[in-house]
TrEMBL record:
Family designation: Belongs to the potassium channel family. Plant (TC 1.A.1.4) subfamily.
Cross-referenced InterPro entries: cNMP-bd_dom, cNMP-bd_dom_sf, Ion_trans_dom, K_chnl_volt-dep_EAG/ELK/ERG, KAT/AKT, KHA_dom, RmlC-like_jellyroll
Organism listed in the record: Mikania micrantha (bitter vine)
Protein's name according to its UniProt entry: Potassium channel
Assembly information from the UniProt record: The potassium channel is composed of a homo- or heterotetrameric complex of pore-forming subunits.
UniProt cross-references to PANTHER family, sorted A to Z: POTASSIUM CHANNEL, POTASSIUM CHANNEL AKT1
Role of this protein: Potassium channel.
Membrane-spanning residues: 6-25, 46-65, 109-130, 189-211
Amino acid sequence: MFVDLVVDLFFAIDIILTFFVAYLDKSTYLLVDDHKKIAMRYVTHMMFPMDVASTLPFQFIYRLFTGKFHHGQIFGFLNLLRLWRLRRVSELFSRLEKDTRFSYFWTRYIKLICVTLFAVHSAGCFYYWIATHHRHMDDTWIGSIIQDFENRSIWLGYTYSLYWSIVTLTTVGYGDLHAVNPGEKVFSIFYMLFNIGLTSYLIGNMTNLIVHSAVRTFIMRDSINEILRYASKNRLPEGLKQQMLSHMQLKFKTAELQQEEVLEDLPKAIRSSIAQHLFRKTVEKTYLFKGISQDLSSQLVTDLKAEYFPPKVEVILQNEIPTDFYIIVSGSMEVLTHQNGMEHLLTSLGPMDMFGEMGVLFNIPQPFTVRSKKLSQVVRISHHHFKELVEPLINHDGKTIMSNFIQYLKNLKKEVQDEIAFLTEHVCDLNIEQVTSFDDFENQETSNYDQEHNQATAINAPSRSFPMRVIIHGHRPQEKKTDTGKVVHLPESLPELLVLAVVMVDGTQVEDLDALRDNDHLFIF
């Protein structure tokens, strides 16, 4: 009774504290912390009378008022009200399963064990109660084995009851303990039917826990097998196949760190705040963005994309088309160049260093190959996004970025400068104050690169130093006429020429003045 009173005291304290616990209003989804509303809700709810009924020590109260100790069945049935407290246990496990501080697997596993033990205990106790209340003690499942069992230790009866319950639950059924009278047989029937559902519940939950813990492993193995099949079918080199495998393994190892997956469902404001916290200082410490405004810095960081690269993986290939440039957050990279089939190491890069910016700034093929030396995290900035942000701020931040880059070129190692001579020779002499748009800076170096490599890839070609002469005709090229045409100077812009609706001798319409050459025949119609 002393233990029962202590437990009842804890539940009585719980009832008192419930009057001071806020609740969630299901209509507004707001926490209600008004004590009057909390008390009114609790008292008018079914929980309050049931909590009181399951907490009151009826047997102690009866003894207190009558002075007698009663062992009647009425108090036994009243004690069954304590089963209402199991609701608290269920709520406890529900909270623990949602609490990330605790392992979901072990929380769920302990809950399943508790459910099993409670079912076994309850069935054993009820089965023993049936035997003790039968008219003929010898005509019971336990009386047929143990004579005068009702006068023996209660622990002996509990041991036999628990043994029968577990054997029945596990469907072993040794047969040494079995139902004798009709009441026991009816109870055994319902208990075995209950066990079918309980066993299905336990097996289903355990299977789900095991599969859930291994599902990522299955996905990773399937992905690796697909890579191996692809590499074998296309006869890829061993080194390239190893890079593919390393990248795939790293993808699964760092899955919880991938911002795109973690932040996918969050509002944009929260994603921006997280990006500012993670990468703002890194961006501002890079040489290219020193001294830029806070506005541009915030805009750059907002849409950064973080990536991880395992060791010995090419991030940028020499002469590939520039689409992005990168900032190293952690790890290290090595800058390489290929000449006559030989690979030469130029320099190494570490945290807060950049690579790929030369190709992006000047819209030229990447001059170097960049390879990871160890596990590295980088953030990626796209060419298009960078240009959109800098173009409106060309008079301040744009010129600051250009000045930073020119100073960076001057401080490069001599062997690196020799590899990009077409940049260092012209950029260092560029007058930043004369640049009025980002395209001017980009086109200046694109033109120099084209002259160096005989490639016509400039975005906007520089203006001509002398006018070009072309021959125009006043009819369609299909019409055979004897006129020799008229020599004219080519206009300065295509719109001025298109007013005359010009086509070439072969019928091709003129769309770019740079495509025309001296003495070309143009037909006006």
